[in-house]
Amino acid sequence: MNELLLSSAAQPIVCSCDCMTADKSFFYPDCMYEYNAVIYVTKGVMYITEDGTDYEINEGELLFLKRHLRHLGVREIKGGTKWCYVHFYLDDPSGNTPAFEPNSAPIMLDQPMSCYEVLPKKLGGLKNGHIERELLDLVDYCRVGDDLKRMKINSMLYSLLADIALAKYIDKYDYSLSYRVRVWLEKHYDEPFSAEKLEKEFFLGYKRMAAVFKQEYGVSMQQYHNKQRMQVAAHLLRTTLLPVGDIANKLGFDDRLYFSRCFRSFSGVSPKEYRQSAE
User: Fold this and answer.
1) Residue 103, exposed/middle/buried by CB under 10 A (0-12, 13-18, 19+)?
2) What is this structure's pTM?
């Protein structure tokens, strides 16, 4: 009921996002948003009624609210409750709605034109998982100064919404360990490779993960991670005027010279030469 559709051909637009803590008990305000919203509870319980339907959002659960519907609270939310929210538009702010039925199978690359996935109205079991971390990363990034901030936060939201929309297929397709490791490496392209972090994330020994990953993808996890970082570096060199040192910092390199050696190994030329050839 009142579900949202995520298009494969339109990037969502972030209006605002933040994390909040209730300093005292309150009722969710009676309002009608001009935008859509996702609310994720990190502590306590929230109660929201949308268009006559009551929802209880517990810790580790999220709820999507649809624009132009009445929202209010009929049960008290206790002081100390904590939550994060993102206000956003889908498709475009004018409110155009896709005239297509949502897919009944995961998005495939050979499908023509655009397609749509249904965002679950409510989703739970997210505590300490990758969807929670994506949401918190989005909120954190919205708080920092960055010339590319608007483009980045919209793309971060799209990635988050896509993961939420496709979460219903995970049990069905039982994604392999190596696939899940690959997704993790792609999401953490902006930090140094860390075997310790991988072990903590997947509760497995590094040697075991490394053997499985290399058997399936033909390269080591570190090689794959480095390739992702260099691909992002190449994109930034082609499309921005950011200094090489700033690009290195964005990708988690403390040493610019080491970054340049890695990039030369990847592309065959230095970052400066690569940028000049792309002009």
Assistant:
1) middle
2) 0.58
Other C-beta atoms within 10 Å of 252: how many?
15
CA distances from 192 to 100, 203, 248 (A): 42, 20, 11
pLDDT for 169: 63
Q: In the block, which residue shows the tokens 């896509």?
A: 162
Neighbouring residues of 46: CB distance < 8 A, sequence distance ≥ 6: 28, 39, 56, 57, 63, 77, 81, 83
> Can you say whether the dihedral through the CA atoms of 120, 124, 128, 129 is positive or negative?
negative
CATH entry, 175-278, from 1.10.10.60, 1.20.1250.20, 3.40.462.20, 2.40.50.460: 1.10.10.60
User: In terms of DSSP H, where are the helices of the chain?
Assistant: 130-142, 149-166, 170-173, 177-187, 195-202, 206-217, 221-239, 244-250, 256-267, 271-278
Alpha carbon 83 to chain centroid, angstroms: 17
User: Is the pLDDT confidence value at 95 over 50?
Assistant: no
pLDDT value at 112 more than 70:
no
Give per-residue pLDDT as tens, 212-252.
888 888 999 999 999 999 999 999 998 889 999 999 999 99
Per CATH, the homologous superfamily of domain 10-94+124-165 is Regulatory protein AraC (2.60.120.280)
Rg (CA), the chain: 21
Please give the structure tokens belonging to residue 46: 């929230």
* 53-57, 155-159, 204-208, 251-255: least confidently modelled range: 204-208
